[in-house]
Amino acid sequence: MPPLAKRLDEWVQADLLTAEQASAILAFEEARPGAHWALIGVMALGALVVGIGVISVVAANWQSIPDGVKLLVDFALLVLLAYQIWRLPESASPLWREGLLLVYALLSLASIGLIGQIYHADGPLDQTLLFWCAMVLPPALLTRHPPLPWGWSGILLAALGSLLITSAGIDLFPAEEDRLVMVGLALPLLAALLAVLCGRAALTVHFAAAFRHWAWVSGVGGVLLLDIILSLEPSALSNQPLLLLPGVVLGLLLLIGLLARRDLSMLARALLAGALTLYLLRLPLGQLTGGGELAAALLTLSFLTLTALYLGLQRERKAFQVILLLMGLRFFKVYLVAFGGLLATGLGLIVTGLLILGVVHLWWKHRQQWILWVEKLA
Amino acid sequence: MRPRPRLWTALALACPILALGGLALHSQLRLNHGMEVRLPVSGFDPRDLLSGHYLTWRVEYGLADLCQNVPPRRAGADHPPMFVCVKPRRFAVDQRPDRADCTLYLAGVCEWNRFAAGVERFYIPEQEARALEQAVMQKKGEVLLVVGADGQAVVKELFLEGKTWRQYLAEHPTR
After folding, report:
1. DSSP readout, A100-126?
2. What is the pTM of this model?
3. Which among B1, B16, B50 is the nearest to A135, CB-wise?
């Protein structure tokens, strides 16, 4: 029995709800756009497999079929799919609609490949993907569920990042590592900015969550990658302030927007602002401290702590747990470097773990007072 | 959410079809209009997940000074435009050749001492990849290009030992 149904059942048994109210709540939740996430996920997998199959067939190079026929069949399929999507009534199953939209988007990508194959076009992959993003954006705006916006936004950011790394500022920063840092720092902030902008319009609201997700993933991933690079080779990255400029500009825009957000509590805004500031300062502070392990760990763990606190406050349980896991791994590395051996590391971790358990026990015992204090702050 | 007007939905869905149609049309027009030139090639065969097997090659322009003494890129600038004049054969940097001096030229850039004009790729059937790759590596290949007035070229055909690659494979079956 699903968790909600089980809990409703318990509430009915405890006379907190009537059976009719429980049924009404269940029906309401079932009708939510995200209610069928598992089915939609499987549907997305099926559509993706179909799309990959189509791409593979294109890639196999149909020697015996004339090029004109290939194009005709391809366009006929596109028109047929578009027509099927267009004629779906509003009451149609969301699975059908989302599945068709996803297959349509993937078929469009396969069509670019087919045209490239027929005319022997030689162009960079990132530009091809940006072209696809541009032409598929209007139908993607018709979607109401995750798979297509998430895929589209991820591909857009990856292609944009690749294009910027290979061309932006190539003369100012000849070393590809420097361009990687510059773009890697700015890209998560760009994703966050796009999330804010998309959240303002009903048409693009499904893209907001997607961009937010990629902003978090690439931002946290970027901090961890920088941590690894600086700890392995502190002088690996050049000390050029200009590297940070795009990121700082985007970061300031985000900070201003963040502080103006009334839908977030004061505490949430403070936590996000703190995490954002630490994110921007991670590289310069890391270089200032000369790449020392403890300083690096402190910076990274501070960033992760603020991130975890914010996610916990927003009740993002899975993301919160992932960040906690990353913090645990980073702790492990600190101890390993600090103590220099598995035995000492293990003892150190046991002590730390006991401390953490102690803090959790104290929090649980006095949680009402803690919650009241946090609510006053919020 | 309010139901979207059907017209907007139709327009949104038509976008990819129109964009792809435009891409195909543009490619076909480039193939139909321009001057043809045949040049020898040598190369190797990687794989493109999106479009299948393809040969990449180096076009043999027969110019000793090709991509030599190219000025370094200026800060903030793109690669300087480069041109290979096919008739008569010569290499020029930065300045588009005058039509009076050069009846046909290709536009491109120098990358790693090679002149790249966007015509270094040819898609082939996966099962014939090995045979075609070997033929091109043995310098039996020539590429037929269609060159536009702006110097942009597209690949029209691959010739091996003077025959189209399909005719060549028919005379040299791999199985």
Report:
1. HHHHHHHHHHHHHHHHHHHTT----HH
2. 0.78
3. B16
